[in-house]
Amino acid sequence: MTSRRAFLPLAFFTVAILVWQTAVVHYGQRATYPYPMGVVDAAVRTIEDGSLVASTSNSLLRVLIGFAIGAACGIPLGVLMGFVRPIGRAVSPIVDSLRSIAPIAWIPMALLWLGIRGNAALFIVTYAAFFPFVLNAAQGARLIDRNLVNAARALGASRALVVRSVVLPSALPAILTGARVSMAFAWGSIIAAELAMGIKVTSGGSGAVGLGQLMVSTLYVRRDVNGLVLYMIVIGIISLCIDLAMRRLQRSLTPWRT
Amino acid sequence: MSGKIDAQSLSKTYVSARSGERVEALRDVSFSVAPHEFVSIVGPSGCGKSTLLALVAGFVAPTSGRVLADGVPITGPDPRRGVMFQDYALFPWRTVLGNVEFGPLARGATREAMREIAHRYIDLVGLKGFEQRYPHELSGGMRQRCALARLLANEPEVWLMDEPLAAVDLQTRNILQDELLRLWGDGDDAAQRRAVLFVTHGIDEAVYLSDRVLVLGRRPGRIKETVDIDLARPRRGLRNSAAAGRYIDYIWNLIRDEAARAIVEETA
User: Fold this and answer.
1) How many CB pairs below 8 A link A and B?
2) Distance (Å, rounded) from C-alpha B118 to C-alpha B138?
3) B76 Cβ neighbours under 8 A, 6+ residues apart
4) So what's the ipTM on this one?
5) In whole angstroms, what is the distance from residue B40 CA to residue B57 CA?
6) Distance between CA A20 and CA A14 in Å, rounded?
7) Which domain holds residue A246?
8) Do A155 and B59 touch (CB under 8 A)?
9) Is residue B227 pLDDT above 90, yes or no?
10) What is the pLDDT of residue A199?
11) Is A164 within a domain?
């Protein structure tokens, strides 16, 4: 049943790959245009020499650290903004103006302040991850049902318990939505940040090379178009995995939402 | 006065944050609830019934006047006054068990005590077997029972109930009324009963359940009349009695005109 449904797209995919391969090989433009077997070769080569795994995990590590910092700062601020109206009114203008600046626009400044090691990229990622957390946590806390707060207080709950067992769970679905957006933003900007700072680091021989930096050296130093495609595929697959994982997390953390 | 609850000259005026418009919800309302007494509040839409309950619960402060509980002015919510909400206000992220455990948890019970108390009251309201369900997996009547168990688990001295049976169908409602009376101690020694303040728009319900009915008028909300319901307890079997019917007619005549006006004004 499912295998029959999968047949048509799979067949089409195979044909497309074959056409792509023959076209590039036939016209002999292998230096400029990537082709499937070349991508496979690049995959084998970079997996064997360890550079693919190392750079991917370097990038992912930065994303995870940035995501964690963004969550640790963004969630409390957002909840506070949503639940305590005066704070929300006071802080919103600043938050709104800062979040309108695309994270990658901070790259020059980040390079100036933090240099071209890993920290500039980490700053960009944290910046990207921070705002979706703030906005969604604030939204979640703002929409909280006051009756539930009253119910908890009438049952004897202290302020701390109200925050822990009413405000946070109320805001949790929105926070998790924020987490999904944060992750997507963070992963998107890490590549951009690493691309921007890439070449110097690689020529400087740093160990903390991420996927974006690897792409830069692949483009300018090794001139390997197949490698570039490989990294694009890896980036896409990781985005997909991140989103699937976040969706699953959302389902398992908020079982009361059908 | 020395009731369990004493409301003294309560007035409440809301000021709309947007338009600055002032709405007088209650004017000069005084009443008291004796320690073992079941008192209902009825009145047309917009008479401030729910506001009155929120004042006694301590969720909002009166514009003037005060409410005393055991002679002490109320300044905020207190677990000795349990509240049941119109939409039940169950915590959607907690199971039935988790909801019922919340009161004991908030008051610092141990894990074992919490569990034991919760199971006892879940049994009492007939929700055994549904402990692990979330509120959205329950019917309206079951949610209502869960809310009742949550209230009872805190063993409050006063039950404040805001149209708790408004959202269930008529048959369920009749059954739950009898359940409520049973849990309150309708058939037992009066000394075991708690003080109840019960807001409803059902006059028949108010008459069937209560010792006394406060009839409110609207715009502004004020007490029009207090009606003592002199029916024997237990009430079971008196639901459709002639005596109950007379009380219902009497109260209905008190509020009919205003209720009719409320319909017109609310559609306008």
Assistant:
1) 64
2) 17
3) A153, B58
4) 0.86
5) 15
6) 10
7) 36-253
8) no
9) no
10) 61
11) yes
User: Domain containing A51 — which CATH number?
Assistant: 1.10.3720.10
Q: For residue A187, which of A75, A61, A101, A43 has the smallest C-alpha distance? A: A61
What is d(CA B95, CA B136) in angstroms, rounded to the nearest whole number? Answer: 10
Residue A68 lies inside a defined structural domain of this protein: yes
Q: What residues of B are in the A interface, CB distance below 8 Å?
A: 57-59, 76-79, 81-83, 85, 87, 89, 91-94, 102-103, 105-107, 134-136, 150, 154
Residues contacting B186, CB < 8 A, separation 6+: B193, B233, B234, B235, B236
**What are residue B228's DSSP bridge partners?**
B212
Contact B106 A172 (CB under 8 A): no
Domains, chain B, in order of start with CATH, read: 5-80+157-265 (3.40.50.300), 90-155 (no CATH)
Chain B residues with CB-CB distance to A165 below 8 A:
91, 94, 102
| Residue A204: pLDDT band with limits 50, 70, 90 | very low
Average pLDDT over every residue of B43-72: 86
Contact A254 B93 (CB under 8 A): yes
Q: Nearest by CB to B83, which of A154, A166, A172?
A: A154
Q: CA nearest A154: which of B121, B182, B62, B69?
A: B69
Has residue A2 been placed in a domain? Answer: no
Predicted local distance difference test score (pLDDT) of residue A205: 47
> Which residue, among B88, B91, B114, B121, would best test binding to A if mutated, counting the most A CBs under 10 Å from its CB?
B91
What's the rounded mean pLDDT across residues A151-164?
A: 89
Interchain contact, A256 vs B134, CB within 8 Å: yes
- What is the DSSP secondary structure assignment for residue B193, as one 8-state letter? P
Instruction: Classify residue A25: in a domain, yes or no.
Output: no
Q: How far is CA A190 from CA A80, A118, A135, A239, in A?
A: 28, 10, 21, 12
- Compute the average pLDDT of residues A67-95: 90
Nearest CB among B57, B89, B106 relative to A157 is that of: B106
Largest CA distance in chain B: 55
Q: What is the pLDDT of residues A8-22, one digit of tens each?
A: 889 999 999 999 888
CA distance linking residue B164 with residue B149, whole number of Å: 13
Which stretch of A25-34, B159-168, B199-208 has the lowest confidence by average pLDDT? A25-34
Closest Cα partner for A189 from A51, A72, A66, A94? A66
Calculate the average pLDDT of chain A.
86
The number of distinct structural domains making up chain A is 1
